[in-house]
Amino acid sequence: MSLLSFDRFCAEILTQTDLLRSRIQGADTRAPVPSCPGWDLGRLLRHLGGTHRRTEEIVRTRATRATGEPGPGTVAGARSRPRSADESAAALGSWLADGAARLVGTLREAGPDAGAGTVAEERPPAFWARRMAHETAVHRADAALAAGTDFDLDEELALDALDEWMDFASRPEVTEAAPGAPPLLGPGRTLYFHATGPAPDTTAGEWLVDLTGGTARRRAAHAKAAVSVRGPLTDLLLFLYRRPTPSGSGGVEILGDEPLLDLWLERSGSWLRK
């Protein structure tokens, strides 16, 4: 369950898009994106704008996996802008803003609970508003890295993005090991994540991932675990997304079973690669 409202997520899609555009003014769109190997800034912008447009189509037509949507994290058939004569940051930024505005308009018109189809897993607009808010924020971090500008994220949005990751990491397919692959579940396999910064004396920003049973389970808790990961809120979020952190390599502290953490990160991030 998301921590923020549908209206807030819709607003954040626009806010994060505007912040991204403001950070790339005058940037070279041929600049490499270190966090997305093989991509330049132009390709990143075309990818994000295409994802917004494909998601808008999914919501508008109530499309589901039957029409090609492959999984919770990415959008198949994203309508990426082809390379054109004008690949400037200004031109791509305007195109990006147009796609975000169309997406938000369609989301708001549909409302949070409108049906997304009748086959496979239904994804209501509330799901897509949340997913696209976080997708845009993380790609803003990528763009900032490519353009050499700073990145920070609102605490409430960062907390919800971390909570969304924990939701995806608890899906059954995360723990389904391929033949010959090491198992993720097993005795003593627990992970604790602590994002520093949220209000003290609460479990906001704390998650225990329990892999000791028949499936992955997560809950808000302050607890001991086989491996503990602690760091500033934004750093911890980018760490899970395998992005460089604003605080540098020392921003996130890891104590305990690092091989377990590495395996969990590989499996829990599988939804991004579908």
What does this structure look like?
The protein folds into 2 domains: 6-150, dinb family like domain (Four Helix Bundle (Hemerythrin (Met), subunit A)), CATH 1.20.120; 158-273, 2-Layer Sandwich (Nonspecific Lipid-transfer Protein, Chain A), CATH 3.30.1050. The longest helix is centred in the middle third of the chain and has 23 residues, at 125-147. It has a 5-stranded mixed sheet with strand order 3-2-1-4-5. The protein has helices at residues 6-23, 41-61, 89-110, 125-147, 155-169, 233-240, 258-268; strands spanning 190-196, 206-210, 217-219, 227-232, 253-256. Strand 2 and strand 3 (217-219) form a beta hairpin. By secondary structure, the protein is α+β, with helices and mostly antiparallel strands. The chain is 43% helix and 9% strand. It is built from 7 helices and 5 strands.
Spatial order of strands in the largest sheet = 3-2-1-4-5
End-to-end Cα distance: 22 Å
The total of beta strands comes to: 5
Helical percent range?
A: 40-55%
**Architecture (CATH level 2) name of the largest domain:** Up-down Bundle
Structural domains: how many: 2
Q: Strand content of the residues, in percent?
A: 5-15%
**Can you count the helices?**
7
Write the CATH homologous superfamily of the largest domain. dinb family like domain
Structural class category: alpha+beta
Radius of gyration: 19 Å
Tell the overall outline. Answer: globular
**CATH class type of the largest domain:** Mainly Alpha
Query: H/E element string?
Result: HHHHHEEEEHEH
Mean pLDDT: 87
Largest sheet: 5 strands, mixed
Low-confidence stretches: 65-73
> What name does the CATH topology of the largest domain carry?
Four Helix Bundle (Hemerythrin (Met), subunit A)
